[in-house]
Amino acid sequence: MPLTLSGMCRSIASSVTLAIDSKAKAMKASGVDVIGFGAGEPDFDTPKAIRDAAHTAIEAGKTRYTPSSGIAELRATAAAKLLRDNGLTYTPEQIIVTTGAKHALLGALLALINPGDEVIIPTPCWVSYPEMVRMAGGKPVFAAMVQSRETNGFVLSIENVRNAVTPKTKAILINSPHNPTGMVLTRDELEELAKLAVRNEFYVISDEIYEKLVYDGAKHISIASLGDDIYRQTIVINGVSKSYAMTGWRIGYAAAPLPIIKLMGSYQSHATSNPTSIAQWASVTAINDCEESIETMRQAFEARRVNMLREIESIQGLSCAVPQGAFYIMLNMQRLYGKTYDGNPIMDAMTFSALLLEYAHVAVVPGEAFEAPGTCRLSYACSQEDITRGMERIRKFVSELK
Questions:
Q1: What is the mean pLDDT of residues 346-354?
Q2: Whole-structure pTM value
Q3: N vs C: which end of the chain shows fewer Cβ within 10 Å?
């Protein structure tokens, strides 16, 4: 009998964002001057107070196993933060610390889903959401957002979500501020979604990892804060990676009703045990003491956003919605379909992105990765100089299309 490998693992698509970032880095390593608009990673150093806290933890010998669900100090800190920033009351026992927010998302799905359960995912969506649902044994069901006008941005269509609900719906996975569009869900949209979830008895997994990065007066609201019923049906996901420039530290957390957190803890105790002890102690300092550093970075992202939007607006054939949060812009390049570069036809965002990287040495992520064909995601989590240089290369590339 021939040896076989896991059908589930073989069915999982690799991350396009990480693949493009890896290729761009390989080109850089070979001496090519590549400008990367692909990866969603702040280019800032982790604030010094956080780095110092890690050194202090090491010198204090805090390098051993911790409780698998996280140290009590960090769980209490996360609970205090959720009350202070989001108006949410959780006990430390209702919080689990995970190896990044991505691991919290997977743990939440594993705690909720039985084989065949459906999870609604508004699209465009982050590349890992559908694959995580499949890994947990569920079925992703896509509900397209409505983009009435690019100047107004992407809007969550409650009607499309309502039409996606079936007797098998177990949860909806939302993300605000949103990757990849940068849209921020309004209170009205969240209230309608909460009513729908309560009425139809399904959970909401709310990915709030970009909550500190909002612009133009937009305000992040956690759906769990909108009433007792939706609070009991929501798993809030957050972490320190994006806002605190701590992507490599791998600390996320989830807050939810205690039965869900207990199941997530059981899974985690066998899957990974505790997140890194040193990173946990550093995260206590991050959440408690680094609001000023966060605001400095947020202001820098806002200025970069303005720069990139201005550049896109000046390039004929390209357009975009104005994002209100995170650090991404969805570039609409459908007017370039059918044109060629060096004899190579542009038939979709995949070919556009490949040609742009090969000939202009600019890395972007094709929208097909986000269930959004005809678009590319550009990250402005890079320097103003790189934005100006990269957009000039894109301008030149587009001008040379036949």
A1: 94
A2: 0.95
A3: N
